[in-house]
Amino acid sequence: TLHIARPEKGKTLADFQNIYNSIAEKMKSESAYDDGTGYGPVLVRLSWHSSATYDKNDNSGGSYGGTFRFKKEASDVLSKGLENATKFLDPIHSEYPWLSHGDLYTLGGVTALQELGGPKTPWRPGRVDTGPETVPAHGRLPIPEGNASYVRNYYDRFGFNDQEVVALLGAHILGKTHLKNSGYDGPWDDDTNIFSNEFFGNLLERKWTLEKNAASNMQYNAKGGIMMLPTDYALVQDPKYLKYVKKYADDQDAFFSDFRDIYVKLLERGISFDDSIEPLVFKTLKEQLK
Ligand code: HEM
Ligand SMILES: Cc1cnc2ccccc2c1N
């Protein structure tokens, strides 16, 4: 499968900054969502799930075709909860119907990441919607029960190495699990909508206990109301992953720049962008205050 980027005709940075601002303003006005967590985390998760179907073996899946807009893809049980993100973005698409869904879902994640204090993340337009026949079969999303070799093997399908996998999973500082969505519960503390390297410090410093949760799934819990999935905890069980967990726990700047790089790589995986397509870097709302 070939995915050639074709940017929307005649649109400039200012046009895309307008969309960024619409999403960011809507995040601000609907900040009560999910008991005050806000829409940022679930928008980042949507950008990940819309890219997580990628397979390097035939260059299929990935963010290009915007196929998450089809129920056939969005109905995957492992995507439960993301309907909140697509419903949040529907009015944005109505306001800017010229924007492809692939560009909308990835721009939504970049906007959320920056508005939650994450790194400035270059973004390129040009994903082109493809039809329902291009929706990849279910089974390409990761399961939370996996161990380190499961996680390594899973991301091998993207061609991501150990350092990239650890950086990418640092996104789990954002938001929370919901029993009704995934059968996992917590974290119960409330500062999970600021992007930072704390995920790694938590992994290393807290005392983790493997416990059965209310949905009879095993998860790691620590005093103070935080939790880790088995796939999160795998990062400290595996010595090769552990090396990078320590690096990022000690160095927030290194985490921010490595996360930015692998997040861009994820959102663009499988797409050929012409070098003439300049990556766009958006201003946050705060930076635009008169
Ligand atoms: C081994 C790979 C991964 C697994 C098994 C996994 C699993 C999960 C699960 C079970 C949840 C809870 C969903 C819910 O109950 O609402 C979740 C939430 C989340 N995931 Fe992941 N995830 C993975 C990788 C990623 C990546 C690569 C990103 C982004 C770069 C990401 C971003 C998020 C975010 C931001 C949330 C919070 C969503 C919310 O608060 O509604 N995840 N993930
Ligand atoms: C602290 C922590 C750990 N794991 C998570 C997994 C998914 C979503 C959120 C998480 C989270 N805030």
Could you walk me through the main structural features you see in this protein, from its secondary elements to its overall organization?
The protein is mainly α. It contains 14 helices and three strands. The chain has a three-stranded antiparallel beta sheet with strand order 1-2-3. Strand 2 (218-222) and strand 3 (226-228) form a beta hairpin. The chain is globular. The protein starts with 12 loop residues before the first helix and ends with a helix. Protoporphyrin IX containing FE is lined by residues 37, 41-42, 44-45, 48, 81, 142, 144, 151, 168-169, 171-172, 174-178, 181-182, 184, 229, 231, 263.
Provide a brief overview of the structure.
This protein has helices at 13-29, 33-36, 40-49, 71-74, 83-95, 101-115, 148-156, 162-169, 179-182, 198-205, 230-237, 239-250, 252-267, 285-288, and strands spanning 209-212, 218-222, 226-228.
